[in-house]
Each structure stands twice: as C-alpha cells, then as structure tokens.
Amino acid sequence: MDKLVIKGGKRLAGDVTVSGSKNASLPIFISTILAPGIHEIHNVPFLRDINTTIKVMETLGAKIEGNGNVVKLDTTHIDNHEATYDLVKTMRASVLVLGPLLARLGKARVSLPGGCAIGARPINLHLKGLEAMGAEIHLTHGYVEARARRLRGARINFDISTVGGTEHLMMAAATAKGETVLENAAREPEIVEVAEVLAEMGAKIEGAGTDTIRITGVSELRPVVHTVMPDRIEAGTFMIASAITGGDVKIRNMRLEHLDALIFKLQDAGVEISNKDNVVRVKGPRKIKSINIKTRPYPGFPTDMQAQMMALMTVADGTSVISENIFENRFMHVSELLRFGADIIIEGNSATVKGVKKLSGAPVMATDLRASASLILAGLAADNTTEVSRIYHLDRGYESIEKKLAGLGADITRVKE
Ligand code: EPU
Prior knowledge:
Blueprint: E1 2-7, E2 13-17, H1 22-31, E3 38-42, H2 48-60, E4 63-67, E5 70-74, E6 82-83, H3 85-90, H4 98-105, E7 107-111, H5 124-132, E8 136-140, E9 143-147, E10 155-157, H6 163-174, E11 179-183, H7 189-201, E12 204-206, E13 212-216, E14 225-227, H8 232-244, E15 248-252, H9 260-268, E16 272-276, E17 279-283, E18 293-294, H10 306-313, E19 319-323, H11 332-338, E20 343-347, E21 350-354, E22 363-365, H12 369-381, E23 385-389, H13 392-397, H14 401-407, E24 411-416
Parallel strand pairs: 2-15, 3-14, 6-7, 10-11, 18-19, 22-23
Antiparallel strand pairs: 1-23, 1-24, 3-5, 4-5, 7-9, 8-9, 11-13, 12-13, 15-17, 16-17, 19-21, 20-21
Helix pairs in contact: 1-2, 1-7, 4-6, 5-6, 6-7, 8-10, 8-12, 10-12, 11-12
Bound molecules: uridine-diphosphate-2(N-acetylglucosaminyl) butyric acid.
Uridine-diphosphate-2(N-acetylglucosaminyl) butyric acid is lined by residues 23, 26, 93, 119-126, 160, 162-165, 186, 303-304, 326-327, 369-370, 397.
C-alpha cells in the first residue's frame, strides 16, 4: 500500500490545472446505458472510481476503450441486468445503474450498497421514486430486484435534497412514458451536467439546477460526444492548499461560479481571490482569520469541502465552528488532525476549532476521500514530516494530487509502505 510523505512549510506557487469532475463522470458513464451506440467522453479523470465504473459497465455488456482522458463507451449491447455486491460495495454510485437498466431492459438486480465511513447513506428515496414511476421493487438477499415493462412519468417530491437520487430519477425518467416532475430536487452543478448530457442524447429536460425538474420522456436516445466539466472539489482543495501555505497559486480549468459558497468564506478568512481570463489566482494571507461554516446542499457550503476547510481553520487566528448537516459521521478527520496538534472539540454535528500557531507533522491515516485531502493540507502547513497512509481513498477521487502539488513546490512524495 502506498503512503504520502510530506515535508511541510513550503509556500505553494505556480500554476495547476484541474481535472474533469469525478462526481459528474460517474453518472455520465452510467447514463450511456440509456442510449445504445458509441459514446465518447472527454476530460475524464484517471481515478479508481472511474475504473470501478468502467468495470460495472463492462459487466453489463458495454465495451469500453480508454485513451488518455478520452473514454469510448459502446453500449450497443447491454445484456446483463445485474450489478453485484463486489462492485457496488467498492463504489456506491454504482447503484445508479438500477434506473437506466430498468429503462433499457425492463429489469435490474443491483446490490444494496450498505453503510459508508461518512454515514448510513440509504437509497430509500431512489427506490421510492422508481416505485412511483411504476417499478416493482423487492429487496432480497441484499439485492434490489426491480421490474417495469416501461417506466411511466410521476410527480416525485424528495424528503431530503439528494444528489444521487435526483440524477438517478432524471436518468430513469428520460425514456419513461409521459412527464416526470422532480420537486425539492438537488441543484448541484453535476446535476446540470448530467441533464445537459441527457439533453444532448435527445432527452427533454427543463429546470435542472433549480429545485423543480421536468422531464418529458422520449422513446429513444442517441449516443453523444461530451467533455466533462472541471472538478469543483479538486479546484476548491487547491484553493485551500494555496491559502494554508500563504501561497500564490493560479488555477486553470476551474469554474469559479461553482464554488461561490467556498469563495465567500475564503475571502472572509482573508484569502485573496481574483479571476483573469479564466485563470483563478489564490493568494494566502500571512494569517488566516477564523470563520464559521455550515454545510448545506448546493448552493450552500459543500460537505465535500468541510474537511479541507477544517484543516485551514486549525491554523486560523481565533475560533471557528464547523457544522456538518449532510452526513452524520463526517468528522473522521478530526482525530487525525488532533495528531498534528490541532485543537478541536466535537459536540453533536458541530466541531469547535481553536486555531493554533503551528501544526506539527505526524504520521496519520486517511479514512475517506475528503478526509485524506484535509490531512495532506495539514501536512503542507505543518513543521517537519507528515506521513499519510491508506491513501487508496485519495486515489478514488484526486487525479495525481501529489504530482500536481509537487508542481507547485510542495515537498511531497508517494512511497510504498
Ligand atoms: N439520503 C437519504 N436517502 C436517499 C438518498 C440520500 O437519506 O435515498 C441522505 C444521505 O444519507 C445524506 C443526504 O441524503 O445524508 C445527501 O446524500 P446525497 O444523496 O445527496 O449524496 P450522494 O448522491 O450519495 C453525492 C456525492 C458525494 C457528496 C454528496 C453530497 C457522488 C458520486 N457523490 O453523494 O461525494 O458528498 O453527493 O453533496 O456524486 C465525495 O465525492 O467525496 C462524495 C462523498
């Protein structure tokens, strides 16, 4: 297993380019099930989760070819309706194949994903929506077994804003009979992106990016050539890397408008952010100011940036309160940040972070994807050496992060444990 060794204290400077979005690529790949033929997806990040999605698609019958960051998916023949536990437990987004398989084959058998390090993450709202669209669903032996001759349009009101649930039902509704209305839909940029891809395939979708999405089912969809949007969480992570090291970093291929909530908070913390010709420059102040954060569905502060922001607050001037409102167990990084000498107390879903003068490098262990990123950020700011182990989490979602950080002047290397 690999680990990262970081010698902290280097001020980051230079240019870095953001890769394609992981959380957009996964549903985009899965949406190709709906449109038989050869799809070509560009700007796909090299990640473990992408490989898992490719495996899922291959077991369903798709033929996949990759060349650099371009992936061709041939979904002419989708002849298997089952996604097994082995695949779904590796990456829970695999459950999104359920709706598209139902739409294409009239049946699907997909493993329930089970719990996750950051929370229980049930898929009850996905299933309730598919049932409202006429699917017959049974849970047996840990699997969801679903059948529907043809899904039909329905009015669905989500109890909670769910990104995956919204993407899933949007895909299922694209070829359903009649109109589907998704109310209290999630508004994340990845949902807009999936809606755009479906529209390029010929789907009729209005309102993606608002809380009401209307989909008028069409009888068939056609293959697409599409370029994936930049990864907003990777971009945000580089912004904090610059901020925490008092750096001066220029970030290319990011969409500033996707990160408003983070940008306002970073500016409150004293970070200078400017945009010229689509290159975003982030300058860290000598001393970070403390700020409070509450995670919320988009356009609120993203839960996927909470751990990284907490790393920044560990060295801020003053005390900040960080509340996690999306996942019930997304503070796994706290006990690792304490190993750097951070001062953090958790009470319920809030963490009170008292800034310390300096973090001190330590051996730490990654527990999930974004937690891993927060430990790297802490390591960049800390004295001496930090070793982050179990970085397979990181490889799920950040493309060559150590190479990109090294390019900015960080002293960071990957070594075999
Ligand atoms: N929820 C339910 N029932 C459902 C669906 C969701 O109770 O049927 C709850 C979840 O347990 C959670 C909340 O609703 O408490 C929001 O979950 P959501 O469905 O929005 O999350 P997701 O679709 O499973 C995606 C991202 C996550 C990101 C969340 C929130 C992908 C592949 N994953 O997950 O990304 O944190 O939205 O923005 O898009 C990451 O990239 O590190 C990551 C975890």
